[in-house]
Write a structure and sequence with these properties.
- The protein has 8 helices and 2 strands.
- By secondary structure, the protein is mostly helical.
- Helix 4 runs antiparallel to helix 5, helix 4 runs parallel beside helix 7 and helix 7 runs antiparallel to helix 8.
- The protein is globular, with a radius of gyration of 19 Å.
- About 5% of the residues have low confidence.
């Protein structure tokens, strides 16, 4: 059993541990009014230094199918069962970095490098760890927490074999198992966030790095070449073909 498979199929355990962690945490108030400009804000500079280290460190950070997974400082626990996948840390870093790039353009090379490294990780197995490992029905659905009833899962189908949101269930659709998370008929949130992050990377750097061919990891060690333009075009075609949109 790979680390990726174990992680992707442990939504209940991840949720339980996250609830325990939050139960022991007391939130501190954040003073927002009167904040100094970004360049003089020590907290922002400290965050940026940490993000730079995260993005540029390769030791102990293996996003491949057979590796031990991302470094511990990449978030793999917040918001289970739906947003506890490490790719959320990647694209959510992109939002403030893009804003910072507009406000402090003299540091553009730093921002561009962070975004490129985050975007590169988005093409890996661990970026799509749910789609590539959550095959068929969730084997843990008989152990879903009761608090999910009527909140995450509709009350009328709770306990009746309904898979929780966050379980992608690759193979349950009419097309069977779809190896490529981009080409797949679904996985909208993956493709949309990926397109946004790659676009921000190219915009901030001023280059067209992601318009050149790159490889997306797929099921069972497979892979396929894409470009940013092809990704967006494919997403547009899929969205246009279904009146209610993708899932």
């Amino acid at each position: 059993m790979t680390a990726a498979f174990q992680f992707a199929t442990s939504l209940v355990e991840t949720w339980t541990e996250e609830m325990r962690r939050w139960a022991g945490t007391k939130g501190a108030a954040v003073e927002a009014a009167g904040s100094p400009p970004i360049g003089r804000d020590a907290r922002v500079r400290g965050w940026l230094a940490h993000v730079w280290t995260k993005a540029t460190t390769t030791e102990g950070d293996d996003w491949s199918a057979t590796g031990n997974g991302p470094h511990p400082w990449w978030d793999k626990s917040t918001g289970p069962p739906m947003t506890s996948f490490p790719r959320f840390d990647l694209h959510e870093i992109g939002y403030p970095i893009a804003i910072l790039a507009n406000q402090t353009p003299a540091w553009r090379e730093v921002y561009a490098e962070i975004l490129e490294q985050c975007a590169a990780r988005y093409t890996t197995h661990w970026a799509a760890v749910d789609w590539l490992n959550q095959i068929g029905e969730d084997p843990a659905k008989d152990r879903y927490p009761r608090v999910w009833k009527g909140t995450i899962i509709p009350a009328e189908v709770f306990g009746q074999g309904y898979n929780t949101p966050g379980w992608t269930g690759n193979g349950l659709g009419p097309n069977g198992i779809e190896a490529d998370p981009i080409e797949a008929d679904g996985m909208l949130f993956f493709k949309g966030f990926m397109a946004l992050l790659l676009s921000l990377s190219d915009r901030v750097s001023g280059e067209r790095r992601w318009e050149e061919p790159w490889t997306m990891a797929g099921v069972g060690g497979s892979s396929k070449q894409w470009t940013l333009e092809r990704l967006c075009s494919h997403l547009h075609t899929q969205w246009s073909a279904v009146e209610c949109g993708l899932h």
